[in-house]
Amino acid sequence: MSKIKDQTMSSKVSWESTIGLLDSVKVDEVGVKERVSSLSTRSIKRESKLQALNYVVSMCDLTTLEGEDTEGKIHQMTAKAIKPDPTDDDVPSAAAVCVYPSLVSTAKEIIGTSNVKVASVSSYFPSGQVPIESKLLDTQYAIDEGADEIDIVINRKAFFEGDYRKVFDEIVALKEACGDKHLKTILEVGELRTYDNIKKASLIALGAGSDFIKTSTGKISNGSSKEACLVMAKAVYEFKESTGFSAGIKVAGGIRNSKDAIRYLIIIKEELGEEWLSPNFFRFGASSLLDDVLRQIRKLKTNAYQSSYYFPRG
């Protein structure tokens, strides 16, 4: 299973170049829906399914972002990320754990020498409704505590007001604060509402230097969708064609079973290629997804389902 690599090359391009990419944005809504519908009918063979399920495990960012989060809860989740199924050494570790900045040092201590990364939300997640100075302080604190990856939210207020330059400049500043730490930029596609907006926000985030673009905070009812993922994948493809930089995608919000997760993998493989079937370039922000995937892996190996309590709680 691929380990997560450090990609230090900057994807940032000039504002003028980014505006050039936005000029051509016009998404065929009917075409997107037809493409997703077509890909959703694809099936995979039994032997390929086990590989796909292991991919999903290795791409999961186990996440807890609640006011009731405690050090004990972080211990449980992090231990599960390191060893999702203690009885099966063939099941890989998860990609990362994602926590609030104040709990980064706790997660980091438990991770130890594991390959699991520690991600932190910042920039006043989930709203982002504070001045850039506060967002930078929030991000710097998470990095000082030991975060390997930072998940920020775009300035949706500026986006809806048509101030795309402000959205771009804030991401540039936050990426500079991150240095060589990976920056994932959350678009909150459910609020963006249209495919044109999703693609514009994707290209702005990529142009500003984001290593990943992410669908949702997981804090609204309309989180991820396969259609949004397809539009984001097309933006990533166009950005690579224009700049040579390969950015990643993270889907989060409402993905709860292995069947759905595999459909996302099919979209990514068909739109971007085998290279993206790796935690280096694709992630799931769906903690509730992991138990179902582990149950499906166990069923393929034993022909019997395990109860949900069979696997340690995260």
List keywords for this structure.
alpha/beta; 314 residues; 8-stranded parallel β-sheet; single chain; 13 helices; 11% strand; 49% helix
Descriptive overview:
With 314 residues, the protein is an alpha/beta fold. The chain has one domain (15-304): Alpha-Beta Barrel (TIM Barrel), CATH 3.20.20.70. The chain contains 13 helices and eight strands. The protein has an eight-stranded parallel β-sheet. β3, α6 (132-144) and β4 (149-153) form a beta-alpha-beta unit. It is globular. The model has no long low-confidence stretch (mean pLDDT 92).
Helix and strand composition category: alpha/beta
End-to-end separation in angstroms reads: 22 Å
CATH topology: TIM Barrel
CATH class: Alpha Beta
Number of helices: 13
Helix content: 40-55%
CATH second-level architecture: Alpha-Beta Barrel
Q: Give the full name of the CATH homologous superfamily.
A: Aldolase class I
> Any idea what the shape is?
globular
Quick overview:
With 314 residues, this protein is of the alpha/beta class. It is 49% helix and 11% strand. It has an 8-stranded parallel β-sheet.
Helix and strand layout, with pairings?
Blueprint: H1 15-23, H2 29-40, H3 46-59, E1 61-63, H4 71-82, E2 96-99, H5 104-111, E3 117-121, H6 132-144, E4 149-153, H7 156-160, H8 164-178, E5 182-186, H9 189-192, H10 195-207, E6 212-214, H11 226-243, E7 248-252, H12 258-272, E8 282-285, H13 287-302
Helix pairs in contact: 1-10, 3-12, 3-13, 4-5, 6-8, 10-11, 11-12
